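Hi everyone,

Forwarding the result from last night's run.
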Amino acid sequence: MTRKTVRIAMNGVTGRMGHRQHLVRSILALRDQGGLDLGDGTVLWPEPVLVGRREDALKALAERHGLAHWSTDLDAVLADPSVDLYFDAQVTSAREEALGKAIAARKHVYTEKPTATGFDGALSLARRAHAAGVKHGVVQDKLFLPGLLKLKRLVDGGFFGRILSVRGEFGYWVFEGDWQSAQRPSWNYRAEDGGGIVVDMFPHWEYVLHELFGRVTSVQALTATHVPQRWDERGKPYDATADDAAYGIFELEGGAVAQINSSWAVRVHRDELVEFQVDGTEGSAVAGLRDCRVQHRGSTPKPVWNPDVPADYSFRDQWQEVPDNTEFDNGFKAQWELFLRHVYADAPYRWDLLAGARGVQLAELGLKSSAEGRRLDVPEIAL
């Protein structure tokens, strides 16, 4: 067995998502399991090079995890020929420039989404990466959630018959920051810093809908800033200039209609923080982060509207749990493994920068739809 060291520049891993999911639960988890076995006698050994703007934070993170390499000089890291791959988990406003530098340096790139603050920039990145001949991927983690993997299994198995509609509910109450600290960074609520729930979540909804049910062909959205003032990390009040809620209707190729509500100003009264209900001619399902429940046509009850009589049954009890039937790894780690196999074993991989551009396109059209008060077509894009 040959061990091949792969040096990965990881930019933005001092943040919550970059640290917890990508560094600890993905790259370091791969090291803990002895590397990634490619099946041809080669084991990939990921060697992270931490990159960021705050020297103290990088140094502390490296020491905590026993890592030897970190730098605040992105240009120097990208100029290092021993670095094969660049990963980006920075704030959205900094991502496009950094990805462009990595592509110009002929590094393979893997990135969080959205890939850019605007569609033109996102599509340009995809085209530049293609022209440079580098391999590129975008994190599309929701596809690897156990609940959605079970839902995909149902779709592939023809459980639904003809799919009629998809209804999604996502969100939770993000505290304003005055009497309790906020669970999300303050830049998320400032449009000038690249914040907003549409920019954050519509790219997720694009790939979930595209992969499971069909390409989005039109969008109609209404956005809102329900909480106009919040308090930042230093306890100072600021005006929330970005949308904190979005209510979207998406037409899908094939005729199904999706409705998805996204909000950071909603209190949770559902089993999980995100849930999708899919209704078809032969059956329905409700999927969350981990669980999935179904109701087949043959076991669908016949409710009768009678508000004068209390219900003596539970609608929830009339659904059946979908079994795991397999073990589910961390979704971020699973996708990292697929991308590394793509780079070093030429395995197929379809979640690229063009897929990332589709997500940015949908977010941009969603904001435009809300501003103009009309439904907009979503054109197909290509390199």
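The two ends are 39 Å apart (CA to CA).

Cheers,
N.
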